[in-house]
Amino acid sequence: MKHVSLLLSVVLLAIILFLAGCQPAHRPDVLPGGQIFATVSVSATATLPPSPVPAKPSPAPTQTALPTPDLAASQLQRLYEASLNYLAQTDAETWQVAGSLGYAPLGGYPSNMCGPLAISILKDAGIVSQTTDLHDFWLLNPEEDVQLLQSTFPVDHFEWLHSDQPIDQIDYSQFPLKAGDLVYIYSGIQGDYSHVLVVTRIDSDGRAYTVTNNYTEAGFVVLEYLLYDPTVPGNGIFYTWPDPANRDLGLTGFGGMDIWRLISLPYYADGAP
């Protein structure tokens, strides 16, 4: 009987231990509504990679506006620079320049090179055609060479101007010359010779200049000369040439002038370069 009671006690103890092993060791926190709130330790937090910062778009390159070239000014600069190629400081150098023009049987002469020299400068600037024959402008006479002048300075592109006033009596503040003008100066009854020149530049004060041959006490030279200063009447070679005090060097300009002037610039007789 004791053995039976002991056996029952052992079985009962085993059942109690088995049931105790099926329960959790502690009760989890429970939120209202039955939701389980799990406490997550900081050490167990997953570290997310940082969100990439969107790259700023590269700014579009700035287009620098290039200045529009002044084509008229470019041609006038070309005219001026061309004229400087003919400078001659002495009589001997002037003979060389005249000969290089090749407008006469022996090349050329300092005393009558003015027409070919002026036309050569205009050719270099593109204002008259490269086919223009310098020989045709040797001893130019506007009254006889009308056809030549019409073909070289067509009225569609050139103004034809004339003044009967002596060159030292013209008011150049009211009747200014322009760079590129071809000017024929009439000697008049009191003068000794006619002369042809091209106005090679006008400065910022309105003064007009030419590069031309001229007879001096040292002989012939080809230099840049001031023609006139509109603010200082009497200053310039237009006042020297008709001055009786210079009779020994020769006088001109008493009969006025003809002018062939471009209507607009730029103008290239053979087309733009």
Polypeptide structure, described:
This protein is of the alpha+beta class. It has a domain at 71-138 and 150-262. The chain is 24% helix and 16% strand. It is built from 6 helices and 6 strands. The chain has helices at 2-20, 71-83, 91-101, 114-124, 146-152, 237-240; strands at residues 158-163, 182-185, 195-202, 208-216, 219-228, 257-262. Strands 1-6-2-3-4-5 form a 6-stranded antiparallel beta sheet. Strand 4 (208-216) and strand 5 form a beta hairpin. The chain is globular. The model is unreliable at 10-48 (pLDDT under 50).
Task: Record keyword descriptors for this entry.
alpha+beta; 6 strands; six-stranded antiparallel beta sheet; 6 helices; 273 residues; globular; 24% helix
Mind summarizing the main beta sheet?
6 strands, antiparallel
Question: Approximately how much helix is present in the residues?
Answer: 10-25%
Overall geometry comes to globular
Q: Main sheet: which strands, in order across?
A: 1-6-2-3-4-5
Strand content: 15-25%
**Low confidence ranges:** 10-48
Number of helices: 6
Distance between the termini: 139 Å
Structural class category: alpha+beta
Short description:
The protein has helices at residues 2-20, 71-83, 91-101, 114-124, 146-152, 237-240; strands at 158-163, 182-185, 195-202, 208-216, 219-228, 257-262. By secondary structure, it is an alpha+beta fold.
Itemize the secondary structure elements and their pairings.
Blueprint: H1 2-20, H2 71-83, H3 91-101, H4 114-124, H5 146-152, E1 158-163, E2 182-185, E3 195-202, E4 208-216, E5 219-228, H6 237-240, E6 257-262
Antiparallel strand pairs: 1-6, 2-3, 2-6, 3-4, 4-5
